[in-house]
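Hi D.,

Good news: the full-assembly prediction came through. Inputs first.
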Amino acid sequence: MAKKKLSNYIEKKNSNIPTLMLVIGSIVLVLLLFASIRLGATNLNFKLIGEAIIHTDDENPEHIIIMSLRFPRAFAAMLIGAALAVSGAIMQGMTRNPLGEPSILGVTAGAAFFVVLSLAFIPDGSMWVTMIASFIGAGLGVALVFTLTTISKGGMTPVKLALAGSAITAFLTALTTGVGMKFDVSRSLSFWYAGGLSTMQDEQLKYIVPVILVGLVIAILLSRSISVMSLGQDVAKGLGQNTLTIQIIGTIAVLLLTGAAVSVAGTIGFVGLVIPHIVRLIVGVDYRWIIPVSAVFGGILLLLADIVARTINSPFETPVGAITALVGVPFFLYLARKEGRGF
Amino acid sequence: MMKDRKFFGLIVGGFLLLLMMMFLSINAGFIKIPFDEVIDVLFGNGTEDNILTIFDFRLPRIFMAALVGMGIAVSGAILQGITRNPLADPGVLGINAGAGLGVVLYMFFLQGSAFMAQGFLSIFLMPIVALCGAFLAATVIYVLAWKKNAVNPTRMLLVGIGINAFCGALLIVFQLKMDPMDFTKALVWLAGTIWGSNWTFVWALTPWLVVLIPLAVYKAKVLDIMTLSEASAISVGLHINRERRNFLLIAVTLAGVCVAVGGGITFLGLIAPHIVRKLIGANHKKVLPLSALFGAIILVMADMLGRVVMSPLEIPVGIVVAIIGAPYFVYLLVKN
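Then the structure:
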């Protein structure tokens, strides 16, 4: 009974729009994926890409470029965009905070710090080392944010959270700079720090795909509960939700998604902020729609940003994190302006 | 009455502590100078080497640290007052990042040729560029936070955080295009380091502080009223927008000139005023001068630690301050 009433409440919007968005979004996503594979120093055409995907010829250099360079990169951009957008959506829903976002809250900075440590102390470690370091760092970041959210007196307002995040980021950045300077890895690090997909390889893709997929599945399974949580802790408890369990599972999902994304692509900010807000404007407040649509839109945004990063100053790469920040900050400012009163 | 005595006690105690820190700092560093030789030098009869080390390297740097510490701490105290938020700080608000962007752009377009060169003009060009960057950032923040003929303090904070991220992204883009030497210089500058350590800079910085800090203390009553609610400030006849703008101008100028010679030092503007408020209460007439004193103590100490801990490698002072300051910040956040 309660469930039915709730779904009546949150399904105010016309339910055709979300489906439509999902379909159109997916089509755009696939088109961008091909565009991303095609664009670059070596000009390729779509026919060649199709051939390479269906039947890879190891003798053909163009096929090799497609399968070992272009495809992993495009695919990674899509997945990482989806991961970041969904973890932003989860954080915004669970904390009821419009500024919930991994990079604003210091999660990515935590991951970055641990990656530096791993680079400094285990210089020839495998991909796994970086990955695990990134998870630990992201985990500490998430833990810090959520601990602060729950134990802070008078609750955690968006302003407090944003300030806390920027302070934690400043702190971790200071430590990262210190370690980087001491071990002379600053410059190699800074591109990573700015976020980039240029070094994406098959190998890395194999590591992150399962992790991100698990994270996305958890997020989708959890989406109904997140909708309830977004109505407020009291309402959620009143409707018989076990808020603590949901928070823990949600945190695990954020951890998997952000940790995997950061470990291979560095700190790419603002995707998790911008996308869920736009999606919420279009599909309404039901997280069962917000989460999948965010995943699709997040993939679109990062694919686009990556294409821009490669082409804007070709043949040099511009850090994709800088591009998402330059797009995301005006949006952040808009939010700050619009909702400034409520903070 | 009781509070007054405490205030003077703290001033005297703080001053003694500052002198002690400065004395310790003269002694510490790559070349260790024993205490008795330091005293000899100070009274005018030390060895030539020691005189050179102390008067040309150590002392200007220590004075610089003290001055920068004062400026940033007072700037932080003012920003906390006008935004009515205990967590404001020039670093968090994006003023440092604006100054940093100015410096990095300057280094980038002039290929670092003028940077650190000892020409009179180039010495002063850097701080001016940094100051311009700081003002530009502050202006953008102020304009964007402006809505319905007023500046909402919380919106100002959020806009500041946004500007911070924006400048950070641009910084990365330009930094990566630099050659490795300039890159390292920019990195060290951004991490906060007292690089302008000669007497010329000390004399260049002093007038700003001598004018602006007393001015802020003189107007402290206004700041007290502003920390009350908006309505009560208006009801006692305060022209709140104008006063807020004036104070913002003072705070940004202080932060700007200090960042220009001290690089991006975060958290100092946060922790110094907080320690002071804990000791003496919220009266800005007392908070501002004591913040200056404590800011100086903390920065002299941090600068010394940065020189000693990993000697001969120097840790930028900003990193030392951040490592000390961040845990305190988190504690504040949880407690508030």
